[in-house]
Amino acid sequence: MNIDILTIFPEYFAPLDVSLLGKARRNGLLAVQVHDLREWTHDRHRTVDDTPYGGGPGMVMKPEPWGEALDTIAPPGSASRLIIPTPSGRPFTQALAVEYAAEPRLLFACGRYEGIDSRVADEVRTRMPVDEISLGDFVLAGGEVAVLVMVEAIGRLLPGVLGNADSVADDSFAPGAMESLLEGPVYTKPPVWRDRPVPDVLLSGHHGAIARWRRDEALRRTARNRPELLERLDAGSLDGHDRDVLREAGFPVDGEGMAN
Ligand SMILES: C[S@@+](CC[C@H](N)C(=O)[O-])C[C@H]1O[C@@H](n2cnc3c(N)ncnc32)[C@H](O)[C@@H]1O
Hints:
By secondary structure, the chain is α/β, with parallel strands linked by helices. The chain has a five-stranded parallel β-sheet. It has a two-stranded antiparallel ribbon with strand order 3-4. β1, α1 and β2 (about 30-35) form a beta-alpha-beta unit. The longest helix is centred in the C-terminal third of the chain and has 19 residues, at about 205-225. It is about 30% helix and about 15% strand. It has nine helices and nine strands. The structure holds S-adenosylmethionine. S-adenosylmethionine binds near residues 115, 135, 140 and 143.
């Protein structure tokens, strides 16, 4: 996969050289180019922002450098998808990460100040898909951290990046049967640490019992931490034991779905 990132702070992306994604880049599984937006300015101060029309506090990113940069990096006719992080976008999810991981090329535009002049997204949308994406209901100082998060979530899904591809299928939010369930607790050696033993079932070698325990724990943790996710569970996929666990956790299920 090819990823191009446009930013006024290229140094923010140094972490992409380390760990899993650094290795993926060195192995040729992922190509990331980081571009300094100021390369496409023409004044002595390399200005990228100006005051907002209509008044109000803060500054807005000027459209001209963005237009020139995007024309250069993704000329008309090139196959790309532009992602603009913004708190007013639609939420970033694991399902979206899976969708993006199937694209051959992604462009990311990191906003700063009060964001990018809206005409940039409108103009680029005439020649490629443009997605405005939020990382959550909070406000960051700039799009760089949001892009780092998205690139990591997407990059670890690329074939060959994770040592064991099965671990993706077990993740919280992984598309499939467990999509609405959080992953339960995990343990490693030693079997007892500070008088705290690992649950016996995990040492039993009984795969069926381990799978059942993991599902019970996933149901309990989801009920405790993200009860709204239970609304999305397909009631038809729940067996009697699932229903017992959910009832004990305070979420009784009737034939149609959650009863409360
Ligand atoms: C200070 S924020 C601008 C916030 C803007 N005034 C608003 O309320 O929508 C500057 C930049 O940070 C990034 N950003 C901030 N919060 C974000 C979030 N929750 N998700 C994605 N990007 C975010 C965006 O690139 C945004 O253009």
